[in-house]
Write a structure and sequence with these properties.
By secondary structure, the chain is α+β, with helices and mostly antiparallel strands. The chain folds into two domains: about 5-70, Winged helix-like DNA-binding domain superfamily/Winged helix DNA-binding domain (Arc Repressor Mutant, subunit A), CATH 1.10.10.10; about 80-255, Beta-Lactamase (2-Layer Sandwich), CATH 3.30.450.40. Helix content is about 50%, strand content about 20%. It has ten helices and nine strands. The protein has helices at about 5-20, 30-35, 40-50, 65-80, 80-95, 140-150, 155-160, 170-185, 225-245, 250-255; strands at about 25, 55, 60-65, 100-105, 110-120, 135, 185-190, 195-205, 210-220. The strands form two sheets. It has a six-stranded antiparallel beta sheet, with helices on both faces. A hairpin with a 4-residue loop joins strand 2 (about 55) and strand 3 (about 60-65). It is globular and about 55 Å long. It starts with 6 loop residues before the first helix and ends with a helix. About 30% of the residues are buried.
């Protein structure tokens, strides 16, 4: 069904996302300028968010996220099956390979969200945070989404055209890569998205074969030659199949009786 916009809600969420991205507290004027809001409107929304403990304000009238957002985030993660199911598998991947392994949820075609994380112990590693958001169609996960989702092809093409890559493939080349991903069940991005970085993604599918989440491994390309990346992809596929089986209705009850 079409979603009817509610401006006050949209602006409040935009403020929360802006504060979540900012490394330092922001003043009201800075918030209004960055989001193109009327200052008085920004102030009214900020006061409401402070009253709900989603935003806090210091003595210098600078705003940052409040502890109320932490409670909401914790509640969402605790009620989600995927983060808890995938965590032991990505821990094992980051132990065996020089990669940061993550679990990614795909709420829509605009962005994906990191919901589980396991950092490698390798001396050189890439930093990712739980809650980080990336364009859904970017890199290895994007190819998986295009291969295993029901989004219309024209929407996928429109989304692809606004992506920013280090070394962007043409759309025709990317479509051929998507077909390869559909056949082999995994995607490897070697330096397209980020120079010198290899990203491997495997889809986690629902009972109808549609993508719901991905397991992703991110590593330095010099530490992930092709045989290692392929071995990693196979291990990730095995982990994805185990997670899929545990997500099926009644799986938890069956597991307790085994």
């Amino acid at each position: 069904m079409p979603v009817r916009a509610v401006p006050a809600v949209t602006r409040a969420v935009s403020i929360l996302r802006l504060l979540g991205r900012s490394k330092t507290p922001l003043g009201m004027k800075a918030i209004a300028q960055q989001l193109a809001l009327v200052p008085s409107t920004a102030l009214h929304i900020l006061r409401a968010l402070v009253a709900e403990e989603l935003v806090k304000v210091d003595a210098a009238k600078r705003y940052s996220l409040g502890l109320g957002t932490l409670a909401l985030a914790r509640g969402a993660l605790e009620r989600a099956d995927f983060p808890s199911l995938v965590q032991p598998h990505i821990d094992e991947l980051s132990r065996r390979y020089p990669v940061t392994a993550i679990g990614v949820e795909l709420p829509n075609l605009q962005h994906m969200i990191v919901v589980a994380l396991s950092q490698t112990q390798a001396p050189v590693r890439l930093h990712v945070d739980i809650g980080s958001r990336f364009p859904t169609l970017i890199s290895a996960t994007g190819r998986c989404v295009a291969a295993f989702s029901g989004y219309p092809r024209e929407e996928i093409e429109a989304g692809f055209k606004v992506l920013r890559w280090n070394n962007a493939p043409s759309y025709a080349t990317w479509r051929k890569e998507v077909e390869t991903v559909r056949r082999q069940g995994f995607s490897i991005d070697r330096g397209n998205y980020i120079a010198g970085v290899t990203i491997v993604a495997v889809p986690v599918l629902d009972s109808a074969g549609q993508i719901e989440e991905t397991i992703v491994s991110v590593g330095i390309s010099s530490q992930l030659d092709r045989p290692t990346a392929l071995a990693l992809a196979r291990d990730m596929q095995q982990a994805a199949r185990l997670v899929e089986s545990l997500k099926q209705p009644g799986a938890e009850v069956r597991a307790r009786h085994q």
